[in-house]
Amino acid sequence: MLVVGGGGREHALAWKLAQSPQAARVYVAPGNGGTATEPGVENLPIAATDVDRLAAFAAEAGIDLTVAGPEAPLVAGIVDTFTAAGLRCFGPTRDAARLEGSKAFAKDFMLRHGIPTAQYQSFSDLDAALAYLQEVGAPVVVKADGLAAGKGVILADDLATAEAAVRDMLAGGRFGAAGATVVIEEWLRGQEVSYIALVDGEHILPLASSQDHKARDDGGRGPNTGGMGAFSPSPLVTPALEQRILDEVMRPTVTGLAADGLRYVGFLYAGLMISEDGTPKVLEYNCRLGDPETQPLLMRLDSDLLELIDAALDGRLQSVSAHWRQDTALGVVLAAGGYPGPYDKGITLSGPLDRATADIKVFHAGTALSDGEILSNGGRVLCATALGADLRAAHERAYATLAEIEMPEGFYRRDIGLVRPP
């Protein structure tokens, strides 16, 4: 098998896939310091977006299954390239991945198919965007249309912040081509939930519920990040709410894509805001597993992930089921000082960096193995993940592990799983 990517999600995917009785070898491209030492796993020095080299390796090495972890290779069309070469690759096609690759596309899709979401307008003209801001006022949310590594969403409490964000993207080129179009939408209030499922083009197999924490600082404050921690299951997702999510969001999304000529196969992630009256509204779609939600989710998964992916690729998800440990799982991200802004790399880490017990696992993200040492190599460095009988027990185990890990200038939130965002 081949896992494409080098983050915490890909470490978790490789770790879980390697547990399958069918797994002879799992390659990760490019991988990280954790996958470099994971049993049964081997790193490849190929970038996640170098689709042609990845396909050539898969053909030469006789790879039976490739799983694309991050969004960039999916948006670049890795599934199209692999399929054309007769290679088995799990994920949506380039056109279907526009659901994540373009926020304007996703918003127009939701409007067209009656999927609940925030009111919005899209702009590529600065003056028109500024005029709209004057019309709707603040607070609002300003989003870069394209991929921005989880940093292209600005929550603007006032017009000055909103106007600065729009100018940065449309005139200042803050996110390059990803910010050449902006989406301005209403600021939804409520509780965020991550809802993720496998999709085979027609059938949906829900995964366990989860919640992540996007804000950098304790109490849900500070700038947005790619995610500072997550836990599963979410106490917000009752059976009644899950039924609403399936009926009002997931099924209309899959059938809507099919109606538009886009057969969706892969992981489908709906980032949802649950309002006080229980209405789920889509904040964003992701065309892959979330990060850091994947880490606690796969800690709880008590089924063979390879079998579930094979069923999705073969169009027979209706014939399989996913089983879950009753425990709660919680993961806390250790980040580099300065993240999500500029940060240093090459910082030496020490402590239980390879801890792996029945209840605790340290998943690496932005790390690299160099001369036997683990060095930081990204903004989100690792995710200490633990299982417990309840949320507090999982919280205590994860934080106890993290307390033993040393990284100069590294930081992490202290309240993952224990507070709701404001």
UniProtKB/TrEMBL annotation:
<dbReference type="GO" id="GO:0016874">
    <property type="term" value="F:ligase activity"/>
</dbReference>
<dbReference type="Pfam" id="PF02843">
    <property type="entry name" value="GARS_C"/>
</dbReference>
<dbReference type="Pfam" id="PF02844">
    <property type="entry name" value="GARS_N"/>
</dbReference>
<dbReference type="InterPro" id="IPR020560">
    <property type="entry name" value="PRibGlycinamide_synth_C-dom"/>
</dbReference>
<protein>
    <recommendedName>
        <fullName>Phosphoribosylamine--glycine ligase</fullName>
        <ecNumber>6.3.4.13</ecNumber>
    </recommendedName>
</protein>
<dbReference type="InterPro" id="IPR016185">
    <property type="entry name" value="PreATP-grasp_dom_sf"/>
</dbReference>
<dbReference type="InterPro" id="IPR011761">
    <property type="entry name" value="ATP-grasp"/>
</dbReference>
<keyword id="KW-0067">ATP-binding</keyword>
<dbReference type="InterPro" id="IPR020562">
    <property type="entry name" value="PRibGlycinamide_synth_N"/>
</dbReference>
<dbReference type="InterPro" id="IPR011054">
    <property type="entry name" value="Rudment_hybrid_motif"/>
</dbReference>
<dbReference type="InterPro" id="IPR020561">
    <property type="entry name" value="PRibGlycinamid_synth_ATP-grasp"/>
</dbReference>
<feature type="region of interest" description="Disordered">
    <location>
        <begin position="211"/>
        <end position="233"/>
    </location>
</feature>
<dbReference type="InterPro" id="IPR000115">
    <property type="entry name" value="PRibGlycinamide_synth"/>
</dbReference>
<feature type="domain" description="ATP-grasp">
    <location>
        <begin position="107"/>
        <end position="314"/>
    </location>
</feature>
<keyword id="KW-0547">Nucleotide-binding</keyword>
<dbReference type="InterPro" id="IPR013815">
    <property type="entry name" value="ATP_grasp_subdomain_1"/>
</dbReference>
<dbReference type="InterPro" id="IPR037123">
    <property type="entry name" value="PRibGlycinamide_synth_C_sf"/>
</dbReference>
<keyword id="KW-0658">Purine biosynthesis</keyword>
<dbReference type="Pfam" id="PF01071">
    <property type="entry name" value="GARS_A"/>
</dbReference>
<comment type="similarity">
    <text>Belongs to the GARS family.</text>
</comment>
<keyword id="KW-0436">Ligase</keyword>
<comment type="pathway">
    <text>Purine metabolism; IMP biosynthesis via de novo pathway; N(1)-(5-phospho-D-ribosyl)glycinamide from 5-phospho-alpha-D-ribose 1-diphosphate: step 2/2.</text>
</comment>
<feature type="compositionally biased region" description="Basic and acidic residues">
    <location>
        <begin position="211"/>
        <end position="220"/>
    </location>
</feature>
<dbReference type="InterPro" id="IPR020559">
    <property type="entry name" value="PRibGlycinamide_synth_CS"/>
</dbReference>
